[in-house]
Design a protein that fits this description.
98 residues, 6 strands, alpha+beta
Length: 98
């Protein structure tokens, strides 16, 4: 982690997002997967698998800098919010997560 990069993952780390996010939907759900450490950034809607995109973590941070607040989200945890300025609510998403 550097002064201007909050994550321990590299900027080019592949992440999962939906096309809805890049079309302006709010990132309302973030998952840091227990099994492989993958990041998922999702809107508050059902998304078909055809709508899933793989993009670099730095692209997500450019799109919504507030996800940088989740740089320390542990593996197996998730964060949710209801509005762009609402606080992220963190919770365990995997029974083995600390």
């Amino acid at each position: 982690m550097t002064a201007d990069w909050p994550f321990t993952d590299a900027p080019n780390t592949a992440t999962f997002v939906t096309r809805h996010i890049f079309n302006g939907d709010l990132i309302s759900h973030v998952y840091h997967d227990w099994d492989d450490g993958a990041w998922q950034f999702l809107p508050n809607r059902i998304t078909e698998s055809a709508g899933i995109m793989i993009v670099a973590l730095d692209e997500v941070l450019k799109l919504d800098p507030s996800v940088g607040d989740l740089h320390d989200l542990p593996l197996g945890w998730k964060a949710e919010r209801t509005a762009i300025n609402a606080p992220w609510l963190r919770s365990r998403n995997h029974p083995s997560a600390e």
